[in-house]
Amino acid sequence: MPRRKDISSILIIGAGPIIIGQACEFDYSGAQACKALKEEGFRVILVNSNPATIMTDPLLADATYIEPIHWKSVEKIIEKEKPDAILPTMGGQTALNTALTLDKKGVLKKHNTILIGANREAIDKAEDRQLFDETMQGINLATPASGIAHSMEDALKVQKEIGFPCIIRPSFTMGGTGGGIAYNISEFKNICEKGLELSPTNELLIDESLIGWKEFEMEVVRDCEDNCIIVCSIENFDPMGIHTGDSITIAPAQTLTDKEFQIMRNASFKILREIGVDTGGSNVQFAVNPENGKMVVIEMNPRVSRSSALASKATGFPIAKVAALLSVGFTLDELKNDITGGLTPASFEPSIDYIVTKIPKFAFEKFPQASPKLTTQMKSVGEVMSIGSNFQESLQKALCSMEEGLNGLNSTNERVDSIPDEEILNELTIPGPKRLFYVADAIRKKWSLEKIHKLTMIDYWFLDQIAELLEMEKKLLDSNLDNLDKESFLILKEKGFSDCRIAYLTNHNEDIVRNTRKKLGVTPIFRRVDTCAAEFSTSTCYMYSSYGDQCESNPSSKDKILVLGSGPNRIGQGIEFDYCCVHASLAMQEEGYESIMVNCNPETVSTDYDVSNRLYFEPITTEKILDIIDIEKPNGVIIQFGGQTPLKLADVLSQKNINILGTNVDAIDRSEDRERFQELVNKLNLKQPSNATARNMDEALKKAKDIGFPIVVRPSYVLGGRAMQLVNNLQELEKYLNEAVEVSNSKPILLDSYLTDAIEVDVDVVSDGKNIEIGGILQHIEQAGIHSGDSACSLPPYSLSEKIQEKMSTQAKNIAKELCIIGLMNIQFAIKNEEVYIIEVNPRASRTVPFISKAIGNSLAKVASKCMIGKSLKDQNFSSKLPENLSFVKEAVMPFDKFPHVDPILGPEMKSTGEVMGIGPNFGEAYSKAQKAANKSLRRSGVIFISVKDTDKKYLDELIPIISNYGFSIVATTSTAKYIEKLGFDVKRINKVMEGRPHVVDSLLNNEIDIVINTTEGSQSIKDSASIRQSALRNKIFCTTTMFGAFAAMEALQGSEEDWTYSSLQEINN
Predict the structure, then answer these.
(1) CA 129, 134, 137 angle in degrees (round to 5)?
(2) Is 891 helix (H, G, I), strand (E, B) or coil?
(3) For each successive 10 residues of the chain (1070 residues), what is the average pLDDT?
(4) Which of 1017, 818, 810, 814 is nearest to 908 (CA)?
């Protein structure tokens, strides 16, 4: 049937900030939905709080609201825009839950707005654990033995029936949030308590343990005429017990027989029909007992999910686009398959003749107090995907994509024999992020596959495949590169061995291996992803590399530009860089170039088949990039938008005389090499905090004494403040050098004087080589010393004088001129006592680019890209003028709720996974909205707890009267209370945790405190007060660990939420 005529405007609810369990795959799905519906003539209204996304670009929707995804805010937008329908299936669990709340509160009925894509009954049936169980029983499909609990009393009753181990899963949550596996009563109570808190319906499903069963997923699409297709089957390498988002997964499923596949396929269709998903994509998860083949249904998501993005990229089938069109009445047979150029309808089930492997990426090094073990609660922060002609090639390419210094199945220790058997046994039995490598080491140590299977329950088929690769490695170790003939080399490459791995195993460098391979005539071919296993020709240039057979790349002779993507999402390098890469690609197309994208991240918009003219889904490694350059012969390569990932290739590309567009590679070195940067600072008469470089322990201790404490210490060449720490004395520095980093001539560490009480500022610059413009000046809300990625910031600055802003602008332009910047540059300044200090210079795109771009209504990345190919700022009519009478606040979103034992204190090492944006007529409203969007509840009355370090007490002179004027009562620890009493204000003293009961944590747990202001310094003091911050987080009490943050919070309380204003980006920048 044709599209619905009773709908003309649709509100799409986004997923909000990037968090663990809900990442940038929803930017991809939301962007696809916006484009598809707009092309069909619908007025598309979007609400999303995340400024780093492509979907919040004003070009994608007709009205784009960057506002908190909370039902009250969304209701205000509905009142204003009056949409006919809401599409809630593109924004993950956040959008589904918000849509359900809007329905339950009567908002949809009041405004005559309908839900499309999934109705309330279907969402409830799928998400409500009890209803889902009953529904499955009604269609004779088995589910795990389970029970439902709405209280601890219920939970204990269910547990007695089910026994241990058991799996706890809260309803209406994502990424397994709040869930886990309990092996004893203590663990059970802890998980249930947290799960009941986090479930919006206070509901838990307690399942029998299926640990060790095989796990499969089916990506299913259904239309309103009951046409159903399986887009893709996915098999988990890891058995049940590890969240599917944390497991290595393979598509299509490798160990299912055809009969088993058909049973699962039919069950998936049955489930969709019974749940009532009339239109769109869904994900169904199954478990299979390897002993007897018994199949049970685990769960289904009645929406586009994380796996949908993977399935879309794996097959080329645009699930989100199709789901959006089905929601407005189209049927699968009416929609054409873009990949085959319309030769097949969307009702043809995709068929693929290659293997896809996804490997998750973790960030446990950022949270040393957290358990690095994998369970049913998702903990990964990103993922990579690779495509190969066989599983072994696909696996090894995925490993090379990880950005972890891997070149294949690396050993966990250079000397395998020195790895204790107990260590391997522990890692195989209790899975962690490196289990695959311990499996490989166990095989290297001649453990039998039977023993490894028994310990891990990983299918024998996968173990055999790994064993074969290791046997080939062993032969390589015993041979010489000169002994490899063309056939031997070809076999190695067909199995996915990288040049770098072959170089390591044969004790040569990678360049020699590459040259030898090419002399033998062993070069890669490129195949196309076509959804139909080459049955029909494809006009879409979506490719992957392999060896043997015929090359399908067919490069054109047009002028072309290669854009290198940012690889897997991780803390320190997130979706902001993908945003920049997408805009670079679009800019090249606008200027008449053919744009070529290379990336390996399945979650992102950059790896969508229709964003660039040509897409290579490949690891961003020297070998693969040079292979692509060999065949495409681009006019130039853009490396400054993908963070550190492509920048690492700068020297190699430069040595090969490849035209790197934009800023010269030498400028990158001048800004990142400490000595050369010092020369630049001196030449331009800039001020810099005292600093030094040390190459051994003694040198570090001596130079630290000369600089004076406190000191910020870090390794050189890092992104996201990796291993960066604030140390207050020699003992803390010594501990850091012994435990956190390795110091050597090749790995020096950097020491910087810490500017106490300084204000940090980000300045983004865009330059065409002649004209230099300031893109934006962002004042950090947290003082210097907090990583810039974790600090909230304000555009325009909310308390800096025009004089200081002018001084920073002049200095920024002078630096850009000296470095001959072409494109983007980010500079971090610190302001203390009206003096401007330079902290660091990054001659590349920074994570602030999307935020500034949304505020000024002009994409800095697109403008910078055009500068790189010679189009001046003047020719582009570039302006960075901000809309009048508006403030924009960016707030970081932390993953602390996933790691309950981690201290949620901010410091110089970045820990945030995402960001939100608040927009308002003043700083207070913008900051308040940003807190709401980050899911922080800023209570407007009650009791404020204050405990601040001595150096911060001076700020209380100004802060306490503000708090008192709002009518808050104050409780404080002894030293802080004395200071407040001297100021003449009432305060009640409260014990620190070490001073006896009742103490501050008791009050927090009893919900007697509404806001926490807690600043501290020194490792012992931080450790002693950690439970305060942890308890505040657990009980959803607003907690700030900086004084500037406390002032901002007070400013946020000035206005009422009822008076908040809501304007679309199109209205703001008109």
Answers:
(1) 125
(2) strand
(3) 86 93 86 94 97 94 97 97 95 90 95 91 82 91 89 91 88 73 90 85 86 94 92 95 93 93 95 87 92 91 84 91 93 83 79 94 86 87 96 98 95 92 94 96 97 96 98 92 92 97 95 95 93 66 92 94 96 92 97 98 93 97 97 97 92 94 91 86 92 85 88 69 76 80 72 88 96 97 87 94 96 96 96 93 94 96 97 96 95 86 84 94 95 92 94 95 95 95 95 88 92 88 85 89 93 91 94
(4) 1017
The C-alpha atoms of residue 646 and residue 861 are separated, in whole angstroms, by 16
Alpha helices in 40-70 (DSSP H): none
Q: How far is CA 565 from CA 31, 359, 568, in A?
A: 18, 18, 9
**958, 1015, 968, 961: which is closest to 988 by C-alpha?**
968
Q: Are 342 and 336 in contact (CB under 8 A)?
A: yes
CA-CA-CA-CA dihedral for 115, 120, 126, 132, to nearest 10: -160
CA atoms within 13 A on the CB side of 551: 13
Q: Per residue, what are the HEC states of 738-783?
A: HHCCCCCCCCCEEEEECCCCCEEEEEEEEEECCCEEEEEEEEECCC
How many alpha carbons lie under 13 Å from residue 1018 in its C-beta half-sphere?
Answer: 9
> What pLDDT sits at residue 455?
95
In the chain, the amino acid numbered 38 is: K
Instruction: Return the pLDDT at 700.
Output: 86
- Tokens describing residue 198: 């986090």
Give the C-alpha separation, 830 to 839, whole Å. Answer: 7
Tell me the backbone φ, ψ of residue 647, rounded to 5 degrees: -60, -30
Chain position carrying tokens 């909370």: 70
Residue 198 β-bridge partners: none
Angle between helices 92-104 and 120-127 (to 10 degrees): 120
Residue-level pLDDT at 51: 96
The two structure tokens encoding residue 371: 């358990």
The confidence score (pLDDT) of residue 171 equals 80
- 3-class DSSP assignment, residue 544: strand
Q: What is the DSSP letter of 57?
A: S
Which residues, in sequence order, are bridge partners of residue 764?
776, 826
Least Cα distance to 301 among 29, 102, 541, 73 occurs for 29
Residue with tokens 């805009």: 583
- Amino acid identity for residue 706 in this structure: D
- Of all helices (H) and strands (E), which one includes residue 1024? helix 1019-1034
Q: Backbone phi, then psi, for 235, in 5-degree steps?
A: -115, 135
Q: Give pTM, 2 decimals.
A: 0.93
Residue 761 in contact with residue 831, Cβ under 8 Å? Answer: yes
Look at the chain and count its residues: 1070
HEC string of 623-681 equals HHHHHHHHHHCCCEEECCCCCHHHHCCHHHHHHCCCCECCCCHHHHHHHHCHHHHHHHH
d(CA 488, CA 426): 37
Contacts of 375 (CB under 8 A, 6+ apart): 176, 180, 181, 241, 242, 243
Amino acid at 994: M
Give Cα 841 distance to the centre of its chain: 24
